[in-house]
Amino acid sequence: MKKLNKSLKNLCSILIVVIVMFSLSACKASEEEKKLNIFLDTTDEHSTEVIKFLIDDYEKSNPDVEVKLNDVLGDKGDIVEKINVGTKVDVIFTNRNNLIELSQKGVLSDLQGTYDENALSDRYYDILGSYGRVGDKYYGIGVVPYSIELLYNKANLKKLNISDPSNSKQWLKALKQINGKGIKTTVALTDDVDANGYLFSLVAGNVINIHELEENYDSGEESYKKLKDMQEIFKEFNSLTKENEITKNSFELGNEQSIINFNNSESPLLVSISYYNSKLKENNIGIVGDYDDDSKYGSNAPVIVNSLICVPVNAKNPDTADEFIKYIYSDKVQAKLVQKGIISGNKIVNNKISGIGKLMVQHMYKANDNSMLILYNLPAKIKNNLILALEKILDGNYNSKEWENVLKKSYK
Predict the structure, then answer these.
(1) Calpha distance 66→292 (Å, rounded)
(2) Mean pLDDT in residue range 46-62
(3) Distance between CA atoms of 275 and 298, rounded to whole angstroms?
(4) What do you get for the CA distance between the two ends of the chain, in Å?
(5) What is the DSSP string of 177-195?
(6) Distance (Å, whole) CA 138 – CA 132
(7) How confident is the model at residue 18 (pLDDT cuts 50, 70, 90)?
(8) Does the pLDDT of residue 25 top 50, yes or no?
(9) pLDDT beyond 60 at 26
């Protein structure tokens, strides 16, 4: 009997140890599920402001989740290393160039299931998916779109005896007249896009299928040479600048103060983004609604999406990452962005936007794959040499071999 009691006691002890270990393991798993490690690889201040607002809002509504935000990831090789060695990376906010390169390295999850589960393709403008797609897979979701808008100050144009432009060609004609008076036009876009990059992208959207560039991303000089339409973009850029007498002195870099000056009739024209919609005085400001949609790609106004959310293939807390994405892309949270004066990528909440902002919304609604800026589908080494080539064209040095020369410099 004593032996039996002793055996029972031993068995009970073992069971207690197993139960305790299981409980501790379950608690540990539970703790892991309550963590979310976010890496912010975004340099644009506008997008960073939006992202941090979304994260703060999520934290307030989910106090049980421990959110860790890392502002800097380092270079792309460092990102891959962090993911591959099992560093706790659950969500990454990055740009399209990095998204393409990371997807090629196989470290990003395909988010098709997330798109389907949250009906993102129905509830959001196509352009957010365009920026997040590589080939036939969705590796990211755009955070917020910025349509690039051509604006004019009615009072200022009236003083200059220049008619209000109703389409993009008339706006460029007004630009030519203003250039002739020695007046510069302010360009207030995102940190990574200047006037030349915008104009080149405007032309490119009508000339080449943007996904051809994506498919050849950093594929080498010989592969890129096969894209014959690329030189056509330089040719059209040259014609555009010559016809409208655009020079290096036609534009000046602007900021939020430039928007205020424009409102006060201190400048006649402005190239800006929809981010500044709430700061524009509608009674005196006009916006170009019609663009040339005659190309086979049906492109409209270029739209910038310079930050996308991605999930690594080995995310430590994938369920929490999914919950985070579901939360920030909910109609309720997106409506909060609109309340802050920011035009969202959400079709439903943007229905409340009125005035000239309504035209900006229409531009986003019409945007397709070719509304992506061409610069976001080219690696940095090509992009930098391309910008230098555009500056030479503005100096009057067009030679019909710009694309060939850009490739030689990029892959020497």
Answers:
(1) 49
(2) 96
(3) 24
(4) 88
(5) HHHHTTPPEEEE--TT--H
(6) 6
(7) very low
(8) no
(9) no
Over 80: is that where the pLDDT of 151 sits?
Answer: yes
* Pairwise CA distance, residues 40 & 308, whole Å: 10
User: Which residue(s) pair with 67 in the sheet?
Assistant: 36
Largest pairwise CA distance in the chain: 112
What are the tokens at 7? 């055996």
Q: Decide if 306 contacts 375 (C-beta within 8 A).
A: no
Q: Hey, how many other C-beta atoms are within 10 angstroms of the C-beta on 19?
A: 10
Name 20's Cβ contacts closer than 8 Å, sequence gap at least 6.
none
- Name the E strands within 86-184: 91-94, 133-134, 137-138, 141-142, 146-153
Q: Which alpha helices (H) appear in 208-277, and where do they start and end?
A: 210-215, 221-225, 229-243, 256-263
pTM of the predicted structure, to 2 decimals = 0.88
Residue 237 has pLDDT above 70, yes or no: yes
- What string of DSSP letters covers 305-360? ---EEE-BTT-S-HHHHHHHHHHHTSHHHHHHHHHTT---SBTTGGGG--THHHHH
Please write the tens of the pLDDT for every residue from 333-363: 999 999 999 999 999 999 989 999 999 999 9
Give the C-alpha distances (Å, rounded to integers) separating 5 from 9, 10, 11, 18, 383: 6, 9, 10, 20, 80
Is pLDDT of 372 > 70? yes
Instruction: Tell me the two tokens of residue 84.
Output: 């591959």
Cα angle for residues 273, 133, 198 (degrees, 5° grid): 30
Q: What is the CB neighbour count within 10 angstroms for residue 300?
A: 23
